[in-house]
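Tip: read the tokens left to right.
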């Protein structure tokens, strides 16, 4: 199997009642379909509870107040916007470039409307085409899928979209170069090189993981500051990412036969390699997941 894993490589099954790609993810994600690092507030938390913990952690850093508008860039299947409406009583807009995710999130919102609950919006488009305003922005593990030459443009977009005192909460997987690894006495081998090439090509479409800080190479904090933000908080979540990946791996192993029936053995094997390899990398400190709280300066007092 060569090239980036795409929806086209997942083959339809005549008996499936779900889109085959959606069904594949449902085999190992929790019921909220949150496809990002969870947060274990307590060791006994289920994966679903840990995902809600992570969403609440992110929303809590946004200083949301009822009536505000929250923009979720890369909203996935909609778990963040649904949670924000219920717990923070805000208006929500979700952006996704996946038709599958758009349809699923739209159906969730239509169901809420039918039951008389607050209903947000989800749009099938990227952030580049959004020309509205938002009081707060969240971007949960979509940033690492952007092209590196768009990082600066994204932060400029967020700064332009937010009002004074606006907040961007960015959660992203980050990586380190050899100098950083050496400085932290993390062993690097040719096997690591091979896995990183696999991860970059098969999962992130040829895009290297962004570093968290620094100017050469330029890190997330530098892009944020160059756009005008003040980075008021950075929270590392590496151990939580490893645990999240362990849960996903166990669930995918448990549903191995169905996963192969839907996708074929190549996709299944690639995902097992991706999940187990990233868990090992997170434990070793080779990669991490971080939440960056980026605040736009307010008006002068």
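Filled-in amino acids:
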């Amino acid at each position: 199997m060569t090239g980036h894993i795409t929806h086209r490589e997942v083959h339809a099954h005549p008996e499936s009642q779900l889109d085959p790609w959606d069904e594949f993810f449902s085999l190992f994600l929790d019921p909220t379909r949150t496809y990002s690092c969870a947060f274990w507030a307590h060791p006994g938390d289920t994966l679903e509870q840990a995902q809600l913990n992570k969403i609440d952690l992110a929303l809590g850093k946004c200083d949301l107040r009822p009536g505000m508008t929250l923009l979720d860039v890369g909203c996935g299947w909609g778990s963040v916007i649904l949670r924000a409406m219920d717990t923070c009583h805000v208006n929500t807009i979700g952006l996704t470039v996946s038709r599958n995710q758009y349809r699923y999130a739209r159906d969730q919102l239509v169901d809420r409307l039918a039951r008389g609950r607050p209903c947000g919006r989800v749009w099938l488009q990227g952030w580049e085409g959004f020309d509205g305003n938002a009081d707060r922005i969240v971007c949960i593990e979509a940033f690492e899928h952007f092209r590196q030459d768009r990082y600066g443009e994204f932060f400029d977009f967020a700064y332009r979209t937010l009002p004074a005192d606006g907040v961007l909460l960015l959660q992203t997987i980050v990586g380190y170069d050899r100098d950083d690894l050496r400085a932290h006495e993390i062993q690097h081998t040719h096997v690591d090189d091979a896995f990183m090439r696999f991860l970059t090509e098969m999962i992130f479409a040829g895009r290297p993981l962004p570093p968290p800080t620094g100017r050469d190479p330029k890190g997330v904090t530098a892009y944020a500051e160059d756009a005008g933000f003040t980075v008021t908080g950075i929270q590392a979540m590496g151990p939580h990412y490893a645990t999240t990946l362990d849960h996903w791996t166990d669930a995918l192993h448990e549903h191995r036969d169905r996963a192969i029936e839907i996708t074929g053995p190549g996709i299944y094997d690639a995902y097992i390699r991706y999940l187990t390899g990233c868990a090992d990398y997170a434990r070793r400190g080779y990669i991490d997941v971080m939440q960056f709280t980026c605040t736009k300066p307010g008006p002068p007092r």
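The chain is about 45% helix and 15% strand. The chain has one domain: 7-295.
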